[in-house]
Design a protein that fits this description.
Blueprint lengths: L1 E2 L5 E2 L9 H10 L3 E9 L4 H6 L1 H4 L4 H4 L1 E9 L4
Antiparallel strand pairs: 1-2, 3-4
Length: 78
């Protein structure tokens, strides 16, 4: 559980439900060119995945193991 500044407990929530593929698509859709991309990986433990399977099963496992997406963007796309 997470606590707001009020101290009221609530479950954790995603900022949004986008995958890394959604971000790459949107970059190109708005006219940006992806010159370079790389990821910071942290393998999710099987125990954590099993415990939160109901929420996590909507995403491919390889997506869940990526912590951060780093990109070099240029625009507009040619």
């Amino acid at each position: 559980m997470m606590f707001k500044m009020t101290g009221v407990a609530r479950e954790a929530a995603w900022v949004n439900k986008w995958t890394f593929a959604n971000y790459l698509y949107e970059f190109t859709r708005v006219g940006l060119r992806v010159e370079k991309e790389w990821y910071v990986w942290t393998r999710m433990t099987d125990e954590f995945y099993t415990r939160h399977r109901e929420k996590l099963m909507a995403y491919p496992r390889y997506e869940l193991d990526r912590d951060f997406m780093c990109v070099v963007l240029a625009g507009p796309a040619k």
